[in-house]
Amino acid sequence: MKLRSFLLAMMLCALCVTQASALEYDFDAPEDYLFGQPTSDDTIYEWENPNVDRSKNTALVAPGFGTPTSYLPGSGEYLTPNLVPGALSGGLVNQVDSAGANTTGDAAGSSIIAGEYPSVDTSGNFTVTQIPGGSTTDIAQGSATGGYTEVTSDLYYANGSLGTLKIPAINLTVKVYQGTDSAALKKGAGHFTNTSIWDGNVCFAGHNRGVNNHFGKIHTLEAGDTISLTTALGTRTYAVTSVEKVSVNDSSGTAATTDNRVTLYTCVMNQPEYRWKVTAIQQA
Questions:
Q1: What integer pLDDT is reported at residue 109 of this predicted model?
Q2: In the prediction, which pLDDT does 95 show?
Q3: How many other C-beta atoms are found inside a 10 Å radius of the C-beta of residue 52?
Q4: DSSP 3-state of 59
Q5: How far apart are CA 142 and CA 150, in angstroms?
Q6: What is the pairing mode between strands 172-178 and 189-191?
Q7: Model-level pTM?
Q8: How confident is the model at residue 19, as a pLDDT?
């Protein structure tokens, strides 16, 4: 019995003196998707149109706070209007083949009346601006060879309008009011006070954006589309003959004419140096 206990003790001692071997471990790095990705982005993104003139020639003086155009991009008065590209050249671009002729025998819309041109002032109103040395008598009462019907008190409707314009192609029906200031254009289309209201050339202006964007689609009209004008003197229907982008200095569209026509003006979006001009001549 004692011998057995001794042998067991010796075996335990032998086990205790046996050299221990170290365990080896091998860990793989976790996949990238297991880590959270950074949420910040320090990259600077820039886009710039290399064809935009950013010189002082096109610099704008911002419109007054709270004015009708204060929220519109590209609005305001030119810092150096005499240096605006194309300001002295007319810049006529036909979109629809022109038809008809003016009183000088040239193609419709090819002449500029000395002294006046349709423009937009800093408050967003259409105006007729006097050019130094020019005369306002050229179209104030029409010309000797052009038709002209003066706006008189008996031509006003009870609602204060002078009539109604309808353009089916763009689903437009709008009242027309005397004058082209902001008050008139808030109500509908504005009648250029220096042009006829019936015989000859009847000219209107309207906004192309905002709540009262009555003329916002006139540049999409095509030759042959009809425009009707109803006044206290009756109703006439006209056919579109030209849609043009003209310089702000081009006043040819307001000239008195021997034929009966309507001429529509509106601004060109983001191109304050141009206007859309639509000409429509009375159908036979």
A1: 32
A2: 38
A3: 8
A4: coil
A5: 9
A6: parallel
A7: 0.55
A8: 57
CB count in 10 Å sphere of residue 176: 25
CA distance linking residue 9 with residue 1, whole number of Å: 13
Pairing mode of beta strands 201-205, 189-191? antiparallel
Whole-angstrom Cα distance, residue 151 to residue 148? 10
How many Cα atoms occupy the beta-carbon half-sphere of 58 within 13 Å? Answer: 13
Query: Distances from the Cα of 229 to the Cαs of 59, 164, 262, in angstroms?
Result: 39, 6, 8
Give CA separation, 221 vs 145, 176, 226, 239, 268, in Å: 29, 19, 9, 10, 14
Number of Cβ atoms within 10 Å of the Cβ of 217: 16
CB within 8 Å of 181: residues ≥ 6 apart = 125, 126, 190
Run of H or E residues at 282: strand 274-282
| Closest CA relative to residue 227, chosen from 171, 179, 157 | 171
Whether 214 shows a pLDDT value over 60: the answer reads yes
What tokens appear for 80 in the block? Answer: 């150096």
Alpha helices in the chain (DSSP H): 2-16, 137-140, 182-187
- Give the Cα separation of 221 and 227 in Å (integer): 10
Averaged pLDDT, 197-223: 91
> Cβ of 8: how many Cβ atoms within 10 Å?
10
**pLDDT at site 220:** 93
Helices (H) and strands (E) in the chain, counts: 3, 13
Which of 38-47, 146-155, 170-179 holds the top average pLDDT?
170-179
